[in-house]
Specification:
- This protein is α+β, with helices and mostly antiparallel strands and about 650 residues long.
- The protein is built from 18 helices and 18 strands.
- Helix content is about 30%, strand content about 15%.
- Strands 5-4-3-6-2-1-11-12 form an 8-stranded mixed β-sheet. It has a 6-stranded mixed β-sheet with strand order 10-9-13-14-16-15, covered by helices on one side.
Length: about 650
């Protein structure tokens, strides 16, 4: 790399024409031209055009704005399943005319985390905290304009405590067009992101405060997504197909908010009802959301041992679930840190050393992990912040207690707790990003539901824009089955903010904080695997069972060996295969595939002798063993229930042919 001359350095030149002239005139001299990097206005234009991937992201960002405004309650109302209007209302501080003007004229220039914050009253004296001391979620001032994902027209109604007037603003966002880049007349023009009309109205409730965002004219694409149009369009096509072979394999979601008929925009009837929800209108907001969570786990005890949200819920219910997972609210059944482990759940404290080993935690009776280890998450009390979404009181849908019994030798979960602070000593803050501090848990259990919770999730100041990462930040060790049995959350209390990408849904993987957390997590996974293998070995030594029938025992051995080999877990057993007259009957263990007997085993015409009945039993066990081997390689889960039964029937007929 060529070094710059060390003499005759000038002040920064920021005018473009002057900069060009200075560069041209510097040849043959030791003059070094200095300037600064600037961001084009069109970058902000792209922001107002929509940078988020899903409609739910926009609602999540509005909730985050309310949290930063010290709101204690956010109420979201939609006209589901039509989704022509969405209202988000909070009881935060509200915006003065000064704050609103700054917001509208400085998109991407938030007063949060800035010296303007205290003067405008949007932060405390510490610009990284809200007026009441909450650690801020928002960062650069584009959260409000996330609504462009949903609409280009919305209204802001805001009022501060003690003001005789409320301020109303109607915003029409402008659609950015690439063609404008080529218009020479726009070269030096400040880009206008939209038009705003603002007025003040007399308020009768002087003590009230807060902000309401009213979204109307929802964009057709966003509305179709919210309506689960992708799912229902296939269902509609199937209903119009007379030929069964021409129908696509797509079953309606088990639970949905309702279906809008595409032909006349009316509410359609599905299986005799307009909607299918796991709660009733009589349930309280708390109880209704708990039933939403429990209905997923209930599927584990039925015919679906690995429930997936996209098969159980429509888009709307999945969105509600994901928003509940993202925002700073309490857990549905309490934080893991407040668990006393019931005395028989093994817990370990992770080592931060590169080749360290986790140490067993001896928790005194009646003492929680938080008390014993001095854990602080959440630093801000989430009980002072609640979100109601169409009558559901949101809480984080992650369960740690009363989980279904499985066939795994380890019947109890395994808990790993981590604490870490890294100062990056010897590196300037500009390179390291400053200090990094976090707490974490890794929760191993034989069955994680839904499957979307298999992975790691990072929260910054209690909030997350990401979903669970099933790769565990690209962990390369081949332990796929064990990884599918782990839920991990990392709670960052300091740092990592600068590694967060602009959409708050991903991280810059090259940032020092991201690199550090990645290495820490991979080290933690290694420690968990060692502890789990050791405990499983101890259980195997004391619980060896022998089958009564030699043939059945050998079939079981082959299926079990295949399962354990493919999943690298000697404590695991394959899911049971049950053939019942009623396939909706609950399974016995909570980890079973339940099929209709009549769909797989044809009715026998001949009278069965005792010998033939015994042979029939062996055939059925062979079929079950083959099904378990297919499950070991993940082949069953790739098929719909109907296709699974068709496959097993074909296999059974081959087995019968080989006998006859």
């Amino acid at each position: 790399m060529t070094a710059a001359p060390s003499s005759n350095k000038q002040a920064d030149i920021q005018d473009e024409r002057e900069l060009v002239a200075s560069i041209r005139s510097s040849h043959g001299t030791d003059t070094v031209i200095r300037t600064v990097l600037k961001t084009d206005e069109r970058v902000i234009a792209r922001v107002t055009d929509g940078i988020y991937r899903q409609p739910g992201s926009a609602i999540r960002e509005l909730i985050s704005n309310a949290y930063d405004a010290d709101a204690t309650r956010v109420v979201i109302k939609t006209d589901a399943p039509r989704f022509e209007r969405i209202v988000v209302e909070d009881d935060g501080h509200g915006m003065t005319p000064e704050v609103l003007a700054h917001l509208l004229l400085h998109i991407g220039g938030s007063a949060k985390r800035h010296e303007d914050g205290p003067a405008l009253g949007v932060t405390s004296a510490d610009p990284t905290r809200s007026p009441k001391g909450r650690k801020l979620i928002g960062k650069i001032g584009i959260g409000l304009f996330s609504v462009s994902q949903l609409t280009h027209s919305f209204q802001i109604i805001t009022k501060v405590k003690g003001d005789d007037f409320r301020t109303v603003a109607t915003v029409a966002l402008r659609q950015y067009a690439d063609e404008e880049d080529h218009n020479a007349n726009n070269a030096d023009k400040r880009f206008e992101s939209g038009k705003v009309n603002i007025w003040r109205e007399k308020a009768s409730d002087k003590p009230s405060h807060g902000t309401t965002i009213v979204l109307t004219s929802i964009r057709p694409q966003a509305r179709d997504t919210l309506r689960s149009r992708e799912i229902w369009s296939v269902i509609e096509q199937n209903e119009s197909q007379v030929d069964m072979d021409e129908r696509q394999v797509r079953e309606p979601p088990l639970y949905h908010i309702g279906r809008v008929d595409s032909s006349n925009d009316s509410l359609a009837i599905q299986n005799g009802q307009m909607y299918s929800l796991p709660w009733t209108e009589q349930d309280s907001p708390d109880s209704a959301f708990q039933k939403l969570v429990h209905c997923v786990w209930n599927e584990v005890g039925k015919s679906t041992p690995n429930p997936q949200l996209d098969r159980i819920f429509d888009y709307y219910l999945r969105m509600v679930w994901q928003i509940a997972l993202a925002v700073p609210v309490p857990y549905v059944e309490g934080h893991l840190f407040d668990w006393d482990l019931d005395g028989d759940v093994p817990a370990f404290l992770l080592s931060n050393a590169p080749k360290g080993n986790a140490k067993s935690i001896e928790l005194p009776k009646g003492t929680t992990l938080r008390e014993h280890l001095g854990l602080i998450d959440p630093a801000d009390n989430p009980g002072q912040f609640e979100v109601l979404f169409d009558g559901l009181k949101l809480s984080r849908p992650v369960r740690f207690r009363d989980l279904p019994v499985t066939n795994n030798a380890l019947k109890k979960p395994l808990v790993m707790i981590g604490k870490c602070r890294e100062e990056f000593s010897g590196f300037p803050k500009a390179l390291s990003g400053g200090s990094l501090e976090f707490e974490a848990y890794l929760f191993w259990t034989p069955k994680v539901a839904p499957t979307e919770h298999q992975g790691s999730l990072i929260r910054i100041h209690g909030s997350s824009g990401t979903l669970f990462d099933g790769t565990f930040m690209h962990y390369q060790v081949s332990e796929q089955n064990r990884l599918r049995q782990i839920t991990c959350e990392i709670f960052v209390s300091e740092g990592l903010d600068s590694a967060l990408n602009i959409d708050r849904e991903s991280f810059n993987s090259a940032h020092p904080h991201s690199v550090f957390i990645t290495k820490w997590l991979h080290n933690a996974l290694r420690q968990l695997a060692s502890a789990q293998k050791r405990l499983a070995s101890q259980v195997r030594a004391t619980t060896r069972e022998e089958g009564a029938d030699a043939v059945i025992n050998e079939i079981s051995r082959v299926a079990t060996d295949a399962w354990q080999r493919e999943h690298d877990d000697e404590a695991a057993f394959p899911p049971a295969i049950q053939l019942d007259a009623n396939s909706s009957k609950l399974a016995a263990t909570g980890e079973s595939y339940v099929f209709s007997r009549t769909s797989i085993i044809p009715k026998r015409d001949k009278v069965r002798t005792t010998k033939s009945k015994a042979a029939d039993a062996i055939q059925e066990e062979k079929l079950k063993g083959i099904a378990q081997v297919l499950a070991s390689y993940g082949l069953l889960d790739k098929l719909s229930k109907k296709k699974q039964e068709q496959l097993l029937r074909a296999i059974f007929e081959i087995l019968e042919a080989s006998v006859e």
